[in-house]
Design goal:
With 118 residues, this protein is mainly β. It has one helix and eleven strands.
Length: 118
């Protein structure tokens, strides 16, 4: 089973940047699909971005695609989410997840809090 630990969250002013990291252990995830999700208070969980084993990425919205960048480092069993031009509406708990294709996401981290002040 894959264990995931996120880091890099924090408090940032609107317009600022953060880089989230997620490190996997237990198994090599080089052939896994890896993703970031987020959940804000009183809102449903929201897909942010994913990256497959080839490095191909997808994003939840055009706004995310224009401001966020997902990447992976197979040598270190890690994924990252670079977030630029952050907005107050990006405030949420961010989770990383792993899926072994073709299965759904079965491994989840505990989350890292991102708070963007206006």
């Amino acid at each position: 089973q894959v264990q995931l630990i996120e880091s890099g969250g924090g408090l940032v002013q609107a317009g600022g940047s953060l880089r989230l990291s997620c490190t996997a252990s237990g198994r090599t995830v080089s052939n896994y699909r890896l993703a970031w999700f987020r959940r804000a208070p009183v809102r449903e969980r929201e897909f942010v971005a994913s990256i497959d084993y080839t490095g191909a990425s997808t994003y939840g919205t055009r706004s995310m695609e224009s401001r966020f960048s997902i990447s992976r480092d197979n040598a270190n069993n890690a994924i990252y989410l670079q977030m630029n031009n952050l907005k107050p509406e990006d405030t949420a708990m961010y989770y990383c997840a792993a899926a072994r294709p073709p299965m759904a996401y079965a491994s989840w981290g505990q989350g890292t809090q991102v708070t963007v002040s206006s």
